[in-house]
Structure formats: C-alpha cells, structure tokens
C-alpha cells in the first residue's frame, strides 16, 4: 500500500548497513541504499525525529541456520559489525545491536521507541527478505505503523526481494520512495 501519511512521531530504522553485510553482492547497488538511508537519516534528524541504526553481531543459537554438518563459519574481520561511515552516525542516534534477523527480538528497540513516543517506523537497509522483513513483521506486531522505503532496501536474492515487496509488505506496511518520504517530512514543517 502506498504511503498515506507520516505520523507525528515517526522514527527511521536503518537495518544492517555495516561493513560486513554491505560487502555481499546485492541486486541493487548497496551504495545507493546507503546514500538514500543517509538522506533520510539527515532529514529525520533535522525534523527532530529519532534515527535508529541497527547492526547484527551474532546469530541465533542452535542448528537452525547452518544444519548439523555445516562447517564452522570463517572468523569475521574485527570491523565486520561496524556501521558504514557513510551513514554519518550522530551521538543522538540510537544504536541497536542484534543477534537475530529482526531488530526487536532480544533488544531494547521497542522500549527505546516507546520512551520517545514513536508510533511509526520507516525501514531501510538489508537484506529485504531477512533483516528488513523480520523487523517489519515485528514492528507491525508491536503496533507500529510501518513504512518501507522501497528504493532504500536491497537483497542478495532478486526473487526473495520481490516477494517481500510484492507479497509480504503490502499486508503489514505502507511503502514509499525516498523522495516521497523526504517531501512528506518537509510538508509537515
């Protein structure tokens, strides 16, 4: 569903734009996703709305991801979980480190948003079918109005990306391009 309105208390939630994940080959240039996320972050800050920068630094325990006979993963570089510098993280941004696909599970994200009176989340980042979709589903279940910045998300798998955009997100969120979101923010001032 197309964007109908921005709430009075939205937050931008940027998913997994970090050194390690942005090194994967994606279907859309990750540099464009980072740039659009940076533009949105700058605008949200300028309008006094929270910016949440989420990174992933672990994985769910158990055998669910790799299977019983999978080899141990290679050690990650020390800066793998560091947010990309182009996001221009600011001291007032909320930093959430997760160890699951979604940003709400086993983190303080909901409490942080509730404390700031947030009613709507705008999501960007990667991967569309994993971190973004899992966070969108959980945000919806927590009662937030969810908006996907459709040109500020990407995935390593084109079919999975399209499935999220065409089948999953319309059931639980609204969507808009970055320019539309920037215009909606400016129109409210």
UniProtKB/TrEMBL annotation:
CDD domains per record: cysteine_hydrolases
Isochorismatase-like domain residues: 11-175
Cross-referenced SUPFAM superfamilies: Isochorismatase-like hydrolases
Hydrolase found in the keyword field: yes
Keyword line: Hydrolase
Protein name: Isochorismatase family protein
């Amino acid at each position: 569903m197309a964007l109908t309105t921005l709430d009075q208390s939205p937050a931008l939630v940027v998913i997994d734009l970090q050194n390690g994940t942005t090194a994967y080959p994606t279907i859309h240039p990750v540099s464009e996703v980072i740039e659009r996320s940076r533009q949105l972050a700058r605008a949200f800050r300028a309008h006094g709305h929270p910016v949440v920068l989420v990174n992933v630094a672990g994985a769910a325990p158990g055998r669910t991801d790799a299977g019983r006979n999978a080899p141990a993963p290679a050690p990650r570089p020390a800066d793998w979980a560091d947010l990309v510098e182009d996001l221009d993280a600011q001291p007032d941004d909320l930093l959430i480190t997760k160890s699951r696909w979604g940003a709400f599970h086993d983190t303080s994200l909901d409490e942080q948003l509730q404390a700031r009176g947030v009613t709507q989340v705008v999501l960007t980042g990667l991967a569309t079918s994993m971190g973004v979709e899992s966070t969108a589903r959980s945000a919806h279940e927590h009662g937030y109005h969810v908006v996907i910045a459709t040109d500020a998300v990407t995935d390593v798998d084109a079919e999975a990306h399209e499935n999220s955009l065409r089948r999953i997100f319309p059931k639980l969120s609204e969507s808009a391009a970055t320019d539309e979101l920037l215009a909606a923010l400016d129109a409210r001032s």
